[in-house]
Design brief:
Blueprint lengths: L3 E5 L4 H12 L3 E6 L6 H11 L4 E4 L5 H10 L4 E4 L6 H6 L1 H21 L4 E7 L23 H16 L5 E7 L1 E3 L18 H10 L5 E4 L11 E2 L1 E3 H17 L5 E7 L5 E2 H12 L5 E4 L14 H7 L7 H15 L2
Parallel strand pairs: 1-2, 1-4, 2-3, 4-5, 5-6, 6-11, 7-10, 8-13
Antiparallel strand pairs: 9-12
Helix pairs in contact: 1-2, 1-8, 3-5, 5-6, 7-11, 9-11
Length: about 325
């Protein structure tokens, strides 16, 4: 009997890639999504990749009654919680939406998990919990600074909720992502922003293919070698594999309370302007970009120290940045066919 894994936000970018890794690792995902920030296209793509029609339930994680129906209808052994609003810029413009959705969905989910005796949870966190870190690369022992955006603040608060509730029987791992990019090598699924992209790579690929007139680089006066922000860009498939490894690690822990955190990144910092130049080199496409003012909520520079995830989870990134950029470009070209 295959273990059933509940994947909230499983029709989204990272969730859909993780569903594929779960299926290929012998698990049976049960997907929840309300399509507020996602699209059925990724469900169709992952069905093509895995030759399986996933168990899908449309609904909202804030809604406890909906969650109870899901847990009543199928035995869940672990929950992977991706469902959240994730745009730094949008969170600055709509803070209340972010506080309500991101925090209340976790509270509702844990409450229903407790009702049904489900103990294991993998939480989709973010490097934004560190704010602007004092030391780079950032390790998991870095203190939380004040978050630079409401989005980052919701991730800090969600981690605090997990720290408090694991003492009541929850076993949880928070995975702090750095910057996911790329697409499945098959080009059947990838990042699919609704409306104007908030992340760098879809804005780059949409500009490259002509959907957008130009790319704006937000700020070239930061204290970095070329003045643009520095980030740690990780291939989404590497990120998805880490979720399966984290779940299997949690599964091996002795019964009882357990909470741990892991950074997921490459350990390499790349500036936005370097990113743009690498994309142009890999794809041989010239990008029309301009320098704009700094964007509210952006951290100047951050990249991961992934030593703990490498050692404890036995996980390392396998895709290069060049491969990630190429996969993103192949996905964009497929979308435009």
């Amino acid at each position: 009997m295959k273990q059933k894994i509940l994947v909230t936000g499983g029709a989204g970018y990272i969730g859909a890639h993780t569903v594929i890794e779960l299926i290929q690792s012998g698990y049976e995902p049960v997907i929840i999504d309300n399509f507020s920030k996602s699209d059925k296209v990724l469900l169709e793509g992952l069905e093509q990749i895995t030759s399986q029609k996933p168990d899908f339930r449309q609904g909202d994680c804030v809604d406890k009654e909906f969650l109870r129906k899901v847990f009543t209808s199928t035995p869940i052994s672990c929950v992977m919680h991706f469902a959240a609003y994730k745009s730094v810029g949008e969170s600055v413009a709509k803070p209340l939406d972010y506080y309500h959705n991101n925090i209340q969905s976790l509270v509702s989910l844990i409450a229903v998990m407790q009702e049904f005796g489900v103990k294991d949870l993998i939480f989709s966190s973010s490097c934004t919990v560190y704010g602007q870190p004092d030391l780079i690369p950032v390790s998991e022992t870095a203190a939380f600074k004040r978050a630079e955006s409401p989005y980052g603040a919701t991730k800090q608060m969600c981690e605090r909720i997990l720290e408090d509730t694991f003492k009541t029987g929850l076993r949880a791992i928070s995975l702090r992502y750095f910057n996911p990019i790329g697409a499945h090598p098959s080009a059947l699924i990838g990042e699919l922003p609704i409306g104007t992209p908030n992340n760098l790579i879809p804005y780059v690929t949409q500009t490259a293919i002509g959907k957008r007139e130009k790319l704006t680089v937000f700020g070239n006066d930061y204290n970095t070698p070329d003045g643009s922000c520095i980030r740690d860009y990780i291939h989404v498939v590497d990120l998805a594999i880490a979720h399966v490894k984290a779940m299997e690690y949690l599964n091996k822990q002795p019964d009882g309370n357990c909470y741990d955190v892991f950074n997921l990144g490459t350990g390499v910092g790349v500036s936005v302007l370097e990113f743009v130049n690498k994309f142009q080199k890999v794809t041989s496409v010239k990008l029309n970009y301009v320098i704009g003012p700094r964007r509210p909520g952006d951290v100047e520079k951050t990249y991961a120290d992934p030593t703990k995830a490498n050692a404890v989870l036995g996980w390392k990134t396998k895709y290069s940045m060049e491969e990630a950029l190429l996969h993103s470009w192949q996905w964009e070209k497929k979308l435009s066919q």
